[in-house]
User: Fold these one by one.
Assistant:
Number 1:
Amino acid sequence: MEKNKELAQIFEKMADMLEFLGDNPYRINTYRRVAEVLSELGEDVEVLVKTGKIHQIHGIGQSSVEKILEYLRTGKISAYEELRQKVPEDLLELLEVPGIGVKTLRLAYDRLKVKSKEDFIRAVKNGQFAFLPGMGEKKIQNILRGLELWEKSKERMTLLQAYELGQSLLKHFEVVKDLYESIELAGSLRRRKETVGDIDLLVSARRENWARLHQHFVSYEGIKEALLHGETKSSVVLQEGRQVDFRTVEPHQWGSALQYFTGSKEHNVRIRDIAKAKGLKISEYGVFHADTDEWIGGRTEEEVYNLIGMQWIPPELRENTGEIELALEGRLPRLIDIKDIRGDFHMHSNWSDGLHSLEEMAEACYRLGYQYMVIGDHSQSSRVANGLDPARYREQFKLIERLNQYYNPRGFYILRGCEVDILPDGSLDLPDDLLEEFDFVVASIHSRFNQDNTYRVLKAMENPYVNLIGHPTGKAYGTREGYPLDMEKVIKTAKETGTALELNTHRADLSPENIRRCMQEGVFIAIVTDAHSVKHLPYIHLGVGLARRGWALPELVLNTKDLQGVKDFVRRKRELMLSGKY
Ligand code: DGT
Ligand code: CA
Ligand code: CA
Ligand code: ZN
């Protein structure tokens, strides 16, 4: 599927370049659409070309097919090569920066003769932007802040990226599975941290197989550069610029090595101290008597933790923020688990900005074994997202009803939902008489990210029909900082009104700290994928990982409720808010 990825990137770049050149918006959108379709295709584009199916794919027109064929034949697309001559390619990389769009780049290019990334950054920092029309102090600060975040985010990948790279590495090792006993992705990825610095891959195997395993590791196709090729440790840099550390240990060392390389460092330091106080020594090689150096265990992680007198600790909690004390007392809470999840509350179909039809989304959710799903297409004011007006929602209701006739006898329920925009004044983008007809309503902010939005969120929660605040802090995975928000007030009002807060897998919003506060205050969270394609739906398990990092308890995660429980949750809020008791 390498070619899918390469082609998607090229089409995306062509769209950016055309936009920079002020080309026709229709053409620009077409290219973006092709990029999206290519990156979401479940099938290899090369295979689709061979079988001729490429001509039948929705969203890829004839002229795009020709470009794809040209690329597969020659490794190049001439239209793309021509565009590269016309635009400063390096400058366009800055489109990744939050707060920098094509307009800003074009303006700097025209007026300040800025031709590269470096030029641009220098010009902002030197204060030259103050001379640009329409460029106020606030906007400049915003760009500077965006650049800072962008530079930082380049050092670390998102959990989602790390997970995908990790899965592809695990797959690479399937063909040599006779050579090892256990394999696991350790480090911050195993702890499900929202950003990951490098990937740590650990294998246990008999020593005679180590050389072959390291050889196999460095033969992985996605490698740009091998930094180290050893007998116990190898390190490489992937095409994406990300590092992977690979280590081999002996089978009897598996538990202690996995514990050690999972970290966090802060957690491990405390664990070592506790072992020491008990006359033990602990390292990646095992647990030993401190005085005799006798090996006493380390086959499994449970064994390691038990030998030093505590419960096994879930990786997501290993940050030395109280988990060790509780584990010593045997009082770790039972955390939310993927097995508890009975449905997803926020996803989009191609009725708004999703890639797949409602039918396809429903079938995918059904196959995940859910009892229910909430379809939550955008509302009318989200024009870029092709938001729905009341008439189209009512039309969608009819389709939902039809689909439910098929699914309900099979124990699966499609709930009528929406992701309604919270407007600048805190009112909602849809009238109450329509909101009342939904089974479940998600309300989100999609505008004015630079201001304090507390009042908007509070006002939305006071609407009887709003059940969940979507991506409440506006944060997105280290690339976008949230808007200023008084979380204390938000949590208090959520509790009082019976509204849940969303943990969005796609953005890692809420943070672990905020989840912990919800748990302490008895506020429900809902783990959602915000899926814009069927491919995103299974990532719910990463959301569960993020929730576990916030010590989320099953009894305060909305997804653990059955259908009746969800209906009761919705009904209770409506009754409370309409009774005037709030
Ligand atoms: P990252 O990669 O920055 O997202 O974070 P980690 O936690 O994956 O850190 P990494 O890759 O440097 O090391 C993986 C684990 O190995 C780390 O979580 C704990 C363990 N480790 C590495 N170096 C040390 C160390 O100097 N002392 C201790 N106690 N543990 C270490
Ligand atoms: Ca790491
Ligand atoms: Ca590492
Ligand atoms: Zn959404």
Number 2:
Amino acid sequence: MTAAPASHWRGALAPPAGVLDVSRRLEDAGYETWCVGGAVRDAVLGRPSLDWDLATAARPEQVQQLFRRTVPKGIAFGTVGVLDRDGVMHEVTTFRRDVRTDGRHAVVEFGASLADDLARRDFTINAIAYRPATGAVADPFDGVGDLARRVVRAVGEPGERMREDRLRALRAIRFAARFGFAIDSATWAAIVASGPHLGRLSPERVREELEKTMRQAPRPAWALERWRAAGALATLAPALDAQPPEAFAACDCLPPPTLAARPQRLWNRMTAPWLGLERAEVDRALTALRCSRQEVRWAADLAGRWHLLAPAFRAHLADGAPPPPDAELRRWAAACGRTLAAPVLRLAAARFAAERAAGVPAPGAGAVRAVYRRVVRIAYRDPIEVADLAVDGGDLAEAGVRAGPLVGRILRRLLDDVVEEPGRNTRGWLLDRARFLSSQADTI
Ligand code: ATP
Ligand code: MG
């Protein structure tokens, strides 16, 4: 095992006290223990990390015996969650090697060495280890060098590694997008060769990759374009494959969905690429990816509103067009409803920004911002939903409108009248109008 030369990043290899305690306990019992994976990579990159995973020579049952508080995280894969004295959990995994893989699942074997364990990892940058007990660094595939060269490279023979687990194709793209790295050419060739086989992956794993990409990549469009170039979209989301680059670039123009942010930020980034598709198509595709019902509805509803309103946005917000009147903005707010009015405009702003950046004529940022503020104010000030009307179905029945679907149709018509002119939202005006509409029942 080659020890990497000491250099500036060594000081960053500073796991939290809880991790050091767990490692010391294992080492004192005679089990070699190393920090591995993402946290070591991030430390070398100078990025702080919360999850420091440990790999150890101890078997899962030995880990369980050594610590008072453990959680069986994935015993079959050798992973035990160990709670430190502050109750924070750390994953401790027995050194392992793969004995069999089928592109989806691995069967692992214990009794392996650190060298075996690092050799089964996906990319060189994820196969660096640090041993707190001695300060040693193990970097058999020159992951530190690849971090300095800013490149994602498969451990070992790329084609073989991708065949073992097709998810690695998507992971490579995600890590490159997250850190702004290039993808090594042989690794890229293996990713492209994987494209047609990605259908073997479970939809849950694919969704998770997409979601992590949206969270972690400062510019997810780069990753989506790599998915397209590798044939991953053709296999996994054919409806997206034909979308223009601006549909993906819109993701880059939305604020990053940090963990502390409201979940809508993530959903908006997940929605942006699909805006050009029909509502039902978005519903179908995201349901197939096992997105939550809530997420699917959010995306499908927004796509539906986008189809309805994008032409009006483009016409009224074009360079040189006069500011749209309040009545127009009320129509937009009414078409969206209070919950979706702001998100539709946020997505529209992102999409238009992406179009302009691509040289496609689209409304300017200033016009969209101004209208966003006005629409939000209007949506909370003016009547824009049936529930805001000064009358309800019961009032219409009393006024002589016969029960049944006609009531709902008349209420919708009354709302249209009120959206045109909010001053009409009085019982007197609405009931008069309802009686008239009721007398014309055949034509409405
Ligand atoms: P993140 O910060 O996104 O969690 P990570 O590198 O910690 O990044 P994980 O998915 O948590 O990624 O995996 C932890 C480690 O396990 C990786 O660094 C890598 O060494 C290894 N690993 C994970 N998934 C695979 C895989 N599909 N094939 C091979 N090794 C993998
Ligand atoms: Mg991790």
